[in-house]
């Protein structure tokens, strides 16, 4: 029976792909989200396009295997030869592409092209460029760094520090091509229930993110241990004031305490039917 230390040992997880790895990472994390009590160390290995490179990756994967831990490998590699090489790993290999593709081929009575990159629609140049612009926008408007062109935002995420604004913004930009700004609520914003002045004209685009005091304190404590910033009292105060602000202005909210970025993004999109997706 494993000891307590062994039970706490994180499981290495690899997302491998012939393209960017977005699909492998997204689908893999959806599955891992069903095991909230476990710890994982995630690594993405994209652009595996040759058998030689696949063989190198297998060496990396197998090096992570120990007597007590077997790594998980989520793959969306389309090329048969490359995929066959990767499947030689001693790790647990979850093929998110091959078996499903064969089922689609049977239904359509057509052989697939097995081309890397098509999983993400990169072949659609217009869509790809739109996503890149959305990512640029999200980076420029991360954490209130820029207030320029807020009128161009599809969505403005508001939250106290460390509630998950940045990863959610980037995910919505990368996966859905949304122009997302995120605005941090700071000490002076909690003095009243009014919206911060820079975003008042864009109330209809706002979406609030909350958490629980315990979870927020834990996340902040990893960044600033034993600080007032990470104390339960401070976290409780900020969350309470933020919730009052959102309620006063009828801003839709979501609690990020026990939700993955993928789940949060799905809820946000469903809650804002006017937002393009």
UniProtKB/TrEMBL annotation:
Its EC number(s): 2.7.11.33, 2.7.4.28
UniProt keyword terms in alphabetical order: Kinase, Nucleotide-binding, Serine/threonine-protein kinase, Transferase
Entry annotated with the keyword Iron: no
InterPro entries: Kinase-pyrophosphorylase, PSRP
Spans traversing the lipid bilayer: none
Binding site for ADP: 159-166
Signal peptide: none
Transferase among keywords: yes
Enzyme class: transferase
Gene Ontology MF annotations: ADP binding; ATP binding; phosphotransferase activity, phosphate group as acceptor; protein serine/threonine kinase activity
Catalytic activity, as annotated: [pyruvate, water dikinase] + ADP = [pyruvate, water dikinase]-phosphate + AMP + H(+); [pyruvate, water dikinase]-phosphate + phosphate + H(+) = [pyruvate, water dikinase] + diphosphate
Annotated HAMAP family: PSRP
Function statement: Bifunctional serine/threonine kinase and phosphorylase involved in the regulation of the phosphoenolpyruvate synthase (PEPS) by catalyzing its phosphorylation/dephosphorylation.
Family statement drawn from the similarity comment of this UniProt entry: Belongs to the pyruvate, phosphate/water dikinase regulatory protein family. PSRP subfamily.
Protein name: Putative phosphoenolpyruvate synthase regulatory protein
């Amino acid at each position: 029976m494993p000891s307590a230390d062994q039970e706490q040992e994180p499981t290495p997880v690899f997302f491998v792909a012939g393209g960017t790895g977005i699909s492998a990472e997204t689908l893999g994390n959806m599955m891992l989200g069903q095991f909230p009590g476990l710890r994982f160390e995630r690594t993405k290995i994209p652009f595996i396009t040759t058998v030689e490179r696949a063989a190198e990756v297998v060496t990396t994967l197998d090096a992570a295997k120990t007597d007590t831990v077997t790594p998980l490998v989520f793959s969306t590699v389309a090329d048969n030869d490359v995929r066959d090489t990767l499947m030689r790993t001693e790790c647990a290999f979850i093929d998110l592409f091959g078996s499903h593709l064969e089922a689609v081929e049977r239904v359509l009575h057509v052989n697939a092209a097995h081309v890397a990159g098509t999983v993400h629609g990169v072949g659609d140049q217009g869509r790809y460029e739109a996503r890149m612009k959305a990512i640029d926008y999200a980076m420029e408007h991360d954490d209130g760094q820029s207030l320029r062109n807020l009128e161009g935002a599809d969505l403005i995420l508001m939250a106290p520090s460390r509630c998950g604004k940045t990863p959610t913004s980037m995910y919505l930009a990368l996966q859905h091509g949304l122009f997302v700004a995120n605005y941090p609520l700071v000490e002076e914003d909690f003095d009243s229930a009014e919206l911060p002045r820079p975003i008042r004209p864009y109330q209809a685009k706002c979406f609030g993110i909350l958490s629980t005091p315990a979870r927020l304190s834990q996340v902040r404590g990893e960044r600033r241990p034993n600080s007032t910033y990470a104390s339960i009292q401070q976290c409780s105060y900020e969350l309470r004031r933020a919730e009052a602000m959102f309620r006063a202005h009828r801003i839709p909210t979501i609690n990020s305490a026990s939700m993955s970025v993928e789940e949060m993004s799905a809820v946000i999109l469903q809650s804002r039917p006017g937002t393009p997706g």
